[in-house]
Amino acid sequence: MDSTSFLIQCLNALQYGLLLFLVASGLTLIFGIMGVINLAHGSFYMIGAYMAYGLAPWVHTHLGGGFFSTLGVGLLLSVLLGYLLEWAFFSFLYTREHLQQVLMTYGLILVFEELRSLLVGDNVYGVPVPDWLGGAVPLSDVMVYPVYRLFVSGVCLALALGMYLVFTRTRLGMKIRAGSNNREMVQSLGVDIRLLYRLVFATGVALAALAGMVAAPISSVYPGMGQGVLIVCFVVVVIGGIGSVRGALLAALLIGVVDTFGKVLLPQAAGVLVYVLMAAILLWKPDGLFKAA
Amino acid sequence: MHGKLTAPLVLTALAFGALALLPGVGSAYAIDWVTKTMIYAVLALSLELLVGSTGLVCFGQAAFFGMGAYAAVLLSPKDGAASLVWLLPAAVASAAAYALVVGALCLRTRGAYFIMVTLAFAQMAYYLVHDTPLGGGSDGIYLTRRPKLGTLLDLEQAVQMYGLTLACLALSFGGLALLLRSRFGRALAGIRVNEQRMRATGFSTYPYKLAAFVISGALAGLAGFLFALKDGFVNPELLSWHISGAVLVMIILGGLGHLRGALLGAFVFALLQELFQSEALFGPLAKHWHLGLGLAIIFSVALLPRGLVGLPALWRGRRHG
Fold first, then answer.
1. What pTM was computed for the model?
2. Which structural domains are found in chain A, ordered by start?
3. Are A159 and A245 in contact (CB under 8 A)?
4. pLDDT at A293 > cutoff 50
5. Preferred mutation among B132, B134, B291 to probe A, highest tally of A CBs within 10 A
């Protein structure tokens, strides 16, 4: 492998890892703060991707504008969806056992997957890359790298930074962190914890949907796309430490590297490598790399 | 308590009696359907030992199920029928050995971690089978000849397959019932209720949990073995996480903490599946039967947290206020 293709693989690994982080961060937040295992999180990724596919023509004719308007409308819808879902299905799960949460969200996966099949069908669809992001950056005389992949990495990095700032530097972030430590205490101090939880949940849904929307032009949209992502995100969360956003970032990048280079160097074993990595880390640190405080 | 004839005991005995009589009256389709459902019931029992009795929520039971099924096919000789005498123990032992490795790793974690890690390891097994040519890859692989037990048992006949499955189900049920009454079973119940206290009273809980995990894996392997024999075909979908999820749904639907709940759950789940798949009732929606199933799961979690076994108690509670 020469240095240019090495660079390309590194950029691919970074892009995949950051995208995984975007999905996994919502998963780890919802678990860390509300204590809910959300199997349906992969479905939100899928819903995002299908929104990028389905909304684009509608947005184009009714609102004008292209890719960014679609992203905006999609984000708005996913926040709304998250808010409603929390109200309808998740708000009474907080006090239930993990087992019931697993079941409930498993039921939701089946429902989302079938609704998708009813509404859009079971075909694979491509999503076009917006024109102004369609170019490529030359890396050497013959090798180029698509601008869109760099754009995806940039969006994910900006969101990661934004999340970090909100959590550590704002009053809202402080309340959320306090709420994850002691729900009753925060409530008795006059904070509307139900609303706070609903917001966190909606944010988690929006993050996953956004990841799906920006990934759609690269991966295209297809049935079952959320489930593969969900399980890799579980691995990310387990390696990083449940509830730790910092851990999720590191673990997602690690998996991005292992998976991308695994596919190049050891194509027969690529599917398994990620899990071998997880087993090795569990042997070393059963609570993940960063245990949430 | 001991030896007392309670209503659940009588009902369970009656259910097994009815299952034993079915081949005399049932159609070929009914026999096939009940055989399949009984295999799922064995799988549900194996998970009930972990989830209901020990409190370990395993979301990767399909891996052991698939391991037993694949072992049955891969260990059978290509040019003739194997003997059940060694094939069955070999398949069960391969599932148990795999469960030993996975369990030793997974049991280092607890709670939500355990759920995710068991799921991830099951996915690992799925990709191993799916991506490597060893077991026929994503197409799966056929069992050329079903095993024999001398001249006693010819599994090419559906009724004999039914008999073998029923015997395995009854033995699993009885064996687990005895196991849970033993000192070992009491220790598992103690771990479920309060592991910290069990350790404080001097039990090293890890070996107990690992033993439960391996027994559960072995039973799931037995179910997989029967499945491979019945269908004569295995493919990677046997290891898919939808099977793990479905079995969890069965035991919760039936009611956790009762072996008969696992049996009831497996049959009710299969009936629900038939119901939502029926073209007569749902027309074109029958193709999308997961929708109804998903909604049924959501409602049962919301309204029946203790499962069907808890229904009589719920009714009694209502009537007496």
1. 0.87
2. 3-284 (1.10.3470)
3. no
4. no
5. B291
